[in-house]
Write a structure and sequence with these properties.
Blueprint: H1 8-16, H2 22-26, H3 37-53, H4 55-59, H5 68-73, H6 77-86, E1 91-94, H7 101-106, E2 112-116, H8 120-132, E3 138-141, H9 145-152, E4 158-161, E5 166-167, E6 171-172, H10 183-190, E7 196-201, H11 207-213, E8 217-225, E9 228-237, E10 245-251, E11 256-262, E12 278-282, H12 284-289, H13 292-299, E13 302-303, E14 311-313, E15 321-331, H14 334-340, E16 345-350, H15 357-364, E17 367-378, E18 384-391
Parallel strand pairs: 1-2, 1-4, 2-3, 4-7, 8-10, 16-17
Antiparallel strand pairs: 5-6, 7-9, 8-9, 10-11, 12-14, 12-15, 13-14, 15-18, 17-18
């Protein structure tokens, strides 16, 4: 398969136009009539998307990009590196290779990696790119992964799967059994070729729903980037039936917050109290985990209310989330709101509260921004309160 836009003058043009509006470029005359203009525009747009998400690819010469949607749906380098840190062994096969970001990092940990991709053009793109990236221990196979596993007929240390969350018949889907490939249906088949499987799923998948579909789950990783959950990773080991570990990690700009707990430990009851000196808001990975009881017991901090998922203490602790000092606690009533917040500037968060942020801002004329942080929530006595805080 040939890619005429790899000509040096076209590559120079693509690099020059990174960041320019595609809609504006589309109206211009194609300076390279022998290559489709839409193809060149796609390379410009996709490469621009890769600049912060895939810096290794962006900085390398003669990289070919698929559609911008493929770039958006691919793993970031940060999450791919994290995945590679979880696994060890000599061989891995990726049944849903895609653009190959994860496999680039797997290839740095394993002696051999196989990239399976049903889309022949995308498979050819990945094979080309790996040569540009000097990856020599990875083989690309353009076929259905089910067939590839049977044809190769060998044992692997790990199987990696990122099931497609789009189904031709159902559109966008959220249950694993509706994804492609159907992992719950094929799990015993996969175990014929590897004793361990890592599955990546969308952050929208409910943990209890995933556990109801999958067996032999040993660990669930909840991965967030700058407080936005990006993916769930399910470690499955053949014949494993013991306790399940929940591992949460949030990659911030300057720090990594990580907290692990055993799923059954969340049955431990939390303690409750009125707002003390400090307020703690769990990061998004921890919120996704649902470990609200174990947070209280592990960190020895009190919850404000069973459903508020905010915590408090008189002594400041290290915590995987945001920490605030409470400067004032007021009731959610006309007098207190007019006295403290009317026409003021503040950052607003609601937790277990009937009104949303937009309606609160409109009703009390609170402008967005500033150094004041207000939490509209419910306390242990079921009173609606506002915590006026400063961020630490």
């Amino acid at each position: 398969m040939t890619f005429p836009f790899l000509q040096s003058e076209i590559q120079d043009f693509i690099n020059e136009k990174i960041g320019e509006p595609i809609a504006k470029l589309a109206l211009q005359k194609n300076p390279f009539p022998n290559v489709e203009w839409v193809t060149i525009l796609n390379q410009i747009e996709a490469k621009a998307k890769a600049k912060s998400k895939l810096p290794t690819w962006f900085a390398s010469k003669n990289i070919i990009y698929p559609s911008k949607i493929s770039i958006e749906q691919s793993s970031s380098e940060k999450t791919a590196l994290y995945k590679s840190s979880l696994l060890s062994g000599k061989s891995l096969i990726d049944l849903t290779g895609g653009f190959g970001i994860d496999d680039y990092y797997f290839a740095q940990k394993f002696e051999t990696v196989a990239h399976c991709e049903l889309n022949t053009e995308l498979s050819a793109i990945v094979e080309h790119n790996f040569k540009q990236l000097n990856v020599s221990n990875l083989d690309c196979y353009a076929d259905d992964s089910y067939v590839i596993l049977q044809d190769l007929n060998k044992k692997w240390d790990w199987i990696y799967i990122d099931p497609s969350r789009r189904n031709d018949a159902k559109g966008k889907v959220f249950m694993l059994a509706d994804c492609l490939p159907n992992v719950p249906e094929n799990i015993d088949f996969y175990f014929q070729f590897a004793p361990a499987i890592l599955i990546k799923t969308a952050p929208l998948l409910d943990l209890s729903a995933g556990l109801s579909e999958l067996k032999n789950v040993k660990k669930i990783h909840i991965v967030a980037l700058e407080n936005e959950v990006k993916e769930l990773l399910w470690e499955i080991h053949q014949n494993y039936t013991s306790e399940i570990t929940i591992s949460t990690v949030n990659f911030g700009k300057n720090e990594i917050q990580q907290f692990d707990f055993i799923l059954d430990d969340n049955q431990i009851l939390a303690t409750y109290n009125t707002p003390q000196k400090y307020l703690y808001e769990p990061n998004s990975a921890l919120m996704k985990s649902g470990g609200f009881e174990v947070i209280s017991s592990h960190f020895k901090i009190d919850k404000l209310h069973k459903h508020s998922h905010l915590y408090t203490s008189n002594e400041k602790i290290d915590f995987p989330g945001r920490i605030f000092e409470i400067e004032n606690t007021i009731g959610y009533n006309k007098h207190d709101l007019k006295t403290h917040l009317l026409n003021q500037k503040a950052n607003i968060t609601t937790r277990n509260f009937p009104d949303n942020v937009e309606s609160i801002r409109k009703k009390w004329k609170i402008k967005e921004g500033g150094n004041c942080y207000c939490f509209f929530t419910t306390d242990i006595k079921n009173n609606k309160i506002v915590l006026i805080c400063k961020k630490i």
